[in-house]
Design goal:
The protein contains 10 helices and 11 strands. The chain has helices at about 65-75, 100-110, 120-135, 145-150, 185-190, 195-215, 220-225, 230-235, 240-250, 275-290; strands at about 5-15, 25-40, 45-50, 80-90, 150-155, 160-165, 170-180, 255-260, 265-270, 295-300, 305. It has 2 domains: about 5-165 and about 300-305, Ribosomal Protein S5, domain 2, CATH 3.30.230; about 170-300, 2-Layer Sandwich (Alpha-Beta Plaits), CATH 3.30.70.890. The structure holds L-homoserine (HSE). L-homoserine binds near residues 14, 21, 142, 187 and 188. L-homoserine binds near residues 21, 142 and 262.
Amino acid sequence: MRNSATAFAPASVGNVGIGFDILGHTVEAIGDRVRVERTVERGVRIRAITGVATELPLEASRNTAGQALKSLAEAHNLDFGFEMTIEKGIPLGSGLGGSAASAVAAVVAGNALLEIPLSKLELLKFAMKGEAVASGSVHVDNIAPSLFGGLVLTVGVDHPRTKQIPVPPGIRCVLVHPHMYLSTKEARGILSSTVKLSDLVWQCANLAGFISACYTNDLDMIRDAFEDVIIEPQRQALIPGFRDVKHAAMSNGALGCSISGAGPTVFCWCETPAAEKIQAAMIAAFGANGLACDSWISSIEATGARVID
Ligand code: HSE
């Protein structure tokens, strides 16, 4: 049996605009790594946090990765413990699923040390317990793609079921992360708890259209359906220059553009040849609004989190 393992979990766009809290996809370009070692003493300890975001709690129950592994160990009454090192590749408060990726990488690495490894669906539930520490609510649109890979739809919370949706070939995701911090709690806190019936119908049609278009490689339908009419209009004021950035993406050929998760990262889907031009235009639009950015062009791989060492 192994005594240590390192897992990588990719970043994610969750939600993907039209699928608030239920539809997310991986961002293979960046991710978090967690190394877990078996210890004789029970419990979970975090030895160190390195990388692009180090100002996170070292106390396991207040850390998404720590809490995720702690809940796994407690649920299975393990007679040993874990010590972990977290290497953050995903900026904090970016809307790129960083808290979810750390939780996912922790349970995937920990799982490699179990005598009888658990299924991914079981790991999902423990990762959710970790994610709840950061966001104050339970949603799986970042955890599910980070764990399973690709574009993933999740139905249910207490007994979640997931479905990997095929992504048409040749699609790239362009992500532009302006250098500002946006709290998920704040971005959720401003949302109205009621929705106009006509907007609900429009959003349902867009989500159904988007998913069926993914199954049938219908890029025109993806373009028409890629419009979040409920959440994006409420959140866009939190991101300076959002409208300009979206216009820059769409006028350069993007299939659709929206806020990644709770923001402030803005993402779009496009065909591969257009990706670099769109990326430059989005960065310039944020620049004109006084914001410097990090940016990635990423594939949407269906592999998800995995043990790498
Ligand atoms: N789906 C969530 C949101 C993601 O948009 O608020 C944030 O973690």
